[in-house]
Amino acid sequence: MIKAIFLSNIPDRVSYVYPKETIELLSQIAEADTAVYTKDDILNAPERFSQVRWIFSTWGMPAFKREEIQHIFPKLECVFYGAGSVQGFARPFLACGVRVFSAWAANSVPVAEYTAAQIILANKGFFALSALRSRGICAGEIGAIQGKYPGNYGATVGIIGAGMIGSKVIEMLKAYDLPVKVFDPFLSAKKAQKLGVTTCSLEELFETCTVVSNHLANNPQTREMLTYDHFTRMMPYATFLNTGRGQQVREADLVRILRERPDLTAVLDVTWPEPPEEGHPFYQMENCILTPHIAGSSGQEVHRMARYMVEEFRRMRSGEPCLYEVTEKMLETMA
Fold first, then answer.
1. Which end of the chain is more exposed for a tag (fewer CB within 10 A), N or C?
2. How confident is the model at residue 334, as a pLDDT?
3. What total number of domains does the chain contain?
4. What is the distance between the alpha carbons of residues 238 and 157, in angstroms, rounded to a whole number?
5. What is the pLDDT of residue 140?
6. Cα–Cα distance measured from residue 257 to residue 266, given in angstroms and rounded to the nearest whole number
7. Region 279-297: what's the mean pLDDT?
8. What are phi and psi of 48, to 5 degrees?
């Protein structure tokens, strides 16, 4: 009888996120089968999984229909997802009464670290000035431009979305003398006060912040939410940073403003599609910095996500309050 399985349509992602010692631990405390199953494996022999109570997964977690879950996994209690967003698969499981846990908090740590680092660099003019120096531009010309950037004392930073990642970025920026403004309709006055931020409209945020960093939840309401009207309001020599989702930006509008205002910089870790299509203007623009979706967990950082899910499993089994359970209501605002 199999009580727990590892499930992913990209099997090597499981061994990447769950190191050998963690897999061995789960085989002991959860009686997990150490093999990694794909959805095809499940559908080809559904009777084998009728007693499964717990699923451990990560990137590549397949989506199931509600009817499939009820038929194949009648005893299933929980899905432990060792990665971030569960938007692609969670709802049918929740509809069947299966609890879903996500390591979004673990994945938010490296994203926040990456974002804070980019903000500090952006305020120093790192992206534009390093490009000039790499082309052999003389010190005098660089110095004239360098003076346009505010540095990291008193410059106001704008955060769009103060969820898990946005809040971590704000906490990390407390080590600097950087006032922070936030646009987030769901941020309460009490939490804003606790974070030490000023809330404002999206328009004001673009008009008054030297760096604007996007951390919006990814849902239909936020698609192409950031448009030319917002980008045209940006301060001179400001930077737009996106580690959220590419779909939240109307990219043709971003291209337009970057062409019209070479003083602006965009640092994009995400685009839509990803990577941009061949011949996309982003590839030819000196003031557009593309990184290959590296903000999230990578290298040894991914093991943090597995550890979070092991700890959550232990809390669930012992009856302790769980920290990272996802509800249907949460899906309305989560990335």
1. N
2. 74
3. 2
4. 10
5. 73
6. 10
7. 96
8. -70, -20
What is the Cα–Cα distance from 301 to 304, expressed in whole angstroms? 6
Domain co-membership, 238 together with 266: yes
Burial 132-158 (b: 16+ CB within 10 A, else e): beeeeeeeeebeeeeeebbebeebbbb
131 and 58 within one domain: no
Interhelix angle for 139-146 vs 126-134, to 10°?
170
- Work out the percent of the chain whose per-residue pLDDT is above 90: 89
Sheet with 54-57, side-by-side order of all strands: 32-37, 4-7, 54-57, 78-81, 99-102, 325-326
Per-residue pLDDT averaged across 104-120, rounded?
95
What's the mean pLDDT when you consider all of the chain?
A: 95
- 192's tokens: 């804003």
Q: How far apart are CA 103 and CA 49, in angstroms?
A: 24
- Cα(209)–Cα(4) distance, integer angstroms: 49
pLDDT at 33 over 80: yes
Tell me the C-alpha distance between 27 and 23, whole Å.
6
- Rounded to an integer, the average pLDDT of 123-129 is 95
154 with 72, same domain? no
* Model confidence, pTM: 0.84
Distance of alpha carbon 44 from alpha carbon 47, whole angstroms: 9
Least confident of 174-183, 215-224, 263-272, 283-292: 215-224
Range of the domain at 38: 4-106+299-332
* Contact criterion met (CB below 8 Å) for 246 and 271: yes
Question: Where residue 162 falls among pLDDT bands split at 50, 70, 90?
Answer: very high
